[in-house]
Amino acid sequence: AHCLLGRCFGQRTAEDGGGSTNDTSTRKMANLRRRLAQASVLAVSLLQGARAFYIPGVRPHEFAQGEEVPMKVNSLTSIHTQLPKDYYRLPFCQPTGGPKMASENLGEFLTGNKIQNSAYSINMLREVYCQVLCQVTLSKVEALFLAKHIKYGYHNNWIVDNLPGASVGLTGTGQHQTHYAGGFPIGFIAQDTKEAYVYNHVNIVLEYHNPEGKEGSRVVGFAVEPMSIGHQFSGGYQWDGVSSEGFTKPLEACVTNQHMVRDSISQFQRVAQGENVVYTYDVTWRYSETAWASRWDVYLSEDHMVPAQVHWYSITNSILVVLFLSLLVVSILVRNLRRDIAGYNAMSALTDEEKEEEAEESGWKLVHADVFRPPHTLPMAFCVLVGSGAQIG
Predict the structure, then answer these.
(1) How far apart, in whole angstroms, are the C-alpha atoms of residue 372 and residue 379?
(2) Which of 2, 202, 233, 271 has the least CB density, counted as fewest CB within 10 Å?
(3) 275 CB burial (10 A radius; 0-12, 13-18, 19+)
């Protein structure tokens, strides 16, 4: 029956004079099916070798007591320059084996993010008191470079379990205040002497929650309180920054088994050539009733410091901008269409020779010939690849 139908179809097309056209179309369809089959086999072979990985913070993770909680560092940012800088371009402590890139997508690269591992060691429910991280002796270039970034107001952006670090500081009245956007500054400039001071000590405050029916704890809060401390080793000990003995030597500003407080700071760490900057940190764990699913709420409301009207102002502003741009585009199109319609109406009064000269299209109307012309080779595969690439990007 299939051959009979084919013979009848061939006789009908031959009588109509289109036999050769039908054969050409059949061959093109057969080639297209063969190429699509080959592409499908190639796609299946690639899918078999694909691997998946876990993105921190997308799925809740329960940390056992004592388990390592990785802390990562992102690019330094500033509202004054709008140029992100690599964290390890400044004289900060580097992890053992050098910094390594964390898994990130193309979007993070395009937005200037550069997430890397850090030298800080954090374990679930394990308190840390004034732990020495490293010592950096500032050269002339490093001191100038660090002071320049402090002057431009660059901020650290640290991440724990996909939570960005909030900044804990003091208000003008001396009260503690937490900001959940923008990270925390790398230092400050003295108002009287205009000298630069670096924040070489941080109090890392982590909040955890114990979910029902699960073993372990989840990280639901992350804040950093930066401090500048001119550290000196007790007994006049001079550390070269390399030997393991310096990590266990006591510091004058630190109290055993007590977290660092601002009242115990006698001098700040100045940024100058030849200064030995000792980096230290504390880790404090606090229980929180906040569930893992709602841990981002405080970032949206800035802990209720931002009134709800601000969001409505932003929405209204966005709507007005969209309306203004839409009216601008519509006005341009209407003006061009009116001009074209007026030209077409004027052509009715011209002679045939003048009409042929005026009928030639020019300018933006020639674009339609390129936009709607499909590619000659595998147009469907081209569309699929372009669409997939747009979604991946």
Answers:
(1) 12
(2) 2
(3) middle
Q: How far is CA 141 from CA 78, 263, 272, in A?
A: 21, 32, 10
Exposure string for 69-86, b = 16+ CB within 10 A, e = fewer: bebbbbbbbbeeeeebbe
> Per residue in 37-73, pLDDT tens?
777 766 656 555 545 544 545 688 999 999 999 999 9
CA distance 290 to 300: 15
Longest Cα–Cα distance of the chain, Å, equals 110
Q: Look up residue 350 and give its two tokens.
A: 């011209």
Q: Do residues 254 and 230 lie in contact, with contact meaning Cβ atoms separated by under 8 Å?
A: no
HSE of 267, CA atoms in CB hemisphere, 13 A = 8
State which H helix or E strand residue 277 sits in: strand 276-287
d(CA 185, CA 78): 9
Instruction: Tell me the pLDDT tens digit for each residue of 355-381.
Output: 666 555 555 555 655 666 777 788 888
